[in-house]
Amino acid sequence: MQWTVLDYDDDDNVVLVRLTDGTHEIAFAARVTLSARRAVLSGCDIQGAGRNTAGVIVLRRLARWLKERLDVDELRIEGAVRASGAAPGRRPKPLIF
């Protein structure tokens, strides 16, 4: 399935994006840095319909689609510090695709 951008806002290198693949809707906010063939989404906060509703396969498809859209070889997602949930106050390990 192809992803579609529903909303997009860019304010001082912080992007707010809401996407859908027709089944899942995902929103995220992050600071974006593009250099050579690499994109880094730092301070990334991702929201979905609920806990574990998208799954790893959907998120990998989204990462692959985003790499194609940004025309990069590497996508690095650096999460924001957790405010709640598992281990609040902790920053998750970066995801590299």
Keywords, please?
single chain, 97 residues, alpha+beta, 6 strands, globular
How would you describe this protein?
The protein is an alpha+beta fold and 97 residues long. It has a domain at 30-96. 16% of the residues lie in helices and 45% in strands. It contains one helix and six strands. It has one helix spanning 55-70, and strands spanning 4-11, 14-20, 25-35, 38-47, 74-79, 95-96. It has a six-stranded mixed β-sheet with strand order 1-2-3-4-5-6, with helices on one face. Strand 1 and strand 2 (14-20) form a beta hairpin. It is globular. The mean pLDDT is 86.
The gist of it:
The chain has one helix and six strands, in the order E-E-E-E-H-E-E. It is an alpha+beta fold and 97 residues long.
Topology pattern, helix = H, strand = E:
EEEEHEE
- Can you summarize the main beta sheet? 6 strands, mixed
Strand arrangement, major sheet: 1-2-3-4-5-6
Number of helical stretches of at least 4 residues: 1
**Low-confidence spans: pLDDT under 50, at least 5 residues?**
none
Helix content: 10-25%
- Report the radius of gyration as a whole number of Å: 13 Å
Judging from the principal axes of the Cα atoms, what is the shape? globular
- How large a portion of the residues is in β-strands, by DSSP E? over 45%
Number of DSSP-assigned strands: 6
Structural class: alpha+beta
N-to-C CA distance:
19 Å
Average per-residue pLDDT, rounded, comes to 86
